[in-house]
Amino acid sequence: xxxxxxxxxxxxxxxxxxxxxxxxxxxxxxxxxxxxxxxxxxxxxxxxxxxxxxxxxxxxxxxxxxxxxxxxxxxxxxxxxxxxxxxxxxxxxxxxxxxxxxxxxxxxxxxxxxxxxxxxxxxxxxxxxxxxxxxxxxxxxxxxxxxxxxxxxxxxxxxxxxxxxxxxxxxxxxxx
Length: 176
Prior knowledge:
By secondary structure, the chain is an alpha/beta fold. The chain contains six helices and five strands, in the order E-H-E-H-H-E-H-E-H-H-E.
């Protein structure tokens, strides 16, 4: 049997402070979460952001994401080779969820995750969380200047219009 898909990937996108991580912890906590923020967490659990290392952090996160998807694909292929039934393989795929928890403001930021997941046989969806920038600026825990959050909110709207029409995309209001 050739599975229609190997699992589900949800790409979250929103401005800083909009509630992406809160949404993940409240609704998708059993999924594999791939967040560039994790790059900046030390062994004691302290978040130590260094903007000079941001490109390295994004590369690190994308590699971890792709590795996780390949591992899921390999697991299903191994189970298939061991004689698992079509139903067992389909259930294994249904249970696998990966979430990308980054701002993902631009098409260029979303595209590598979307394309890798789709190419590896996963169902991919994008969820844009809308949040007034003033609210997000107050909630943001990463010391991002309010003006930067405001500018990101403008780019978020502009970039959504540039998504390819075949990308699965939904928009929702952020958790209050």
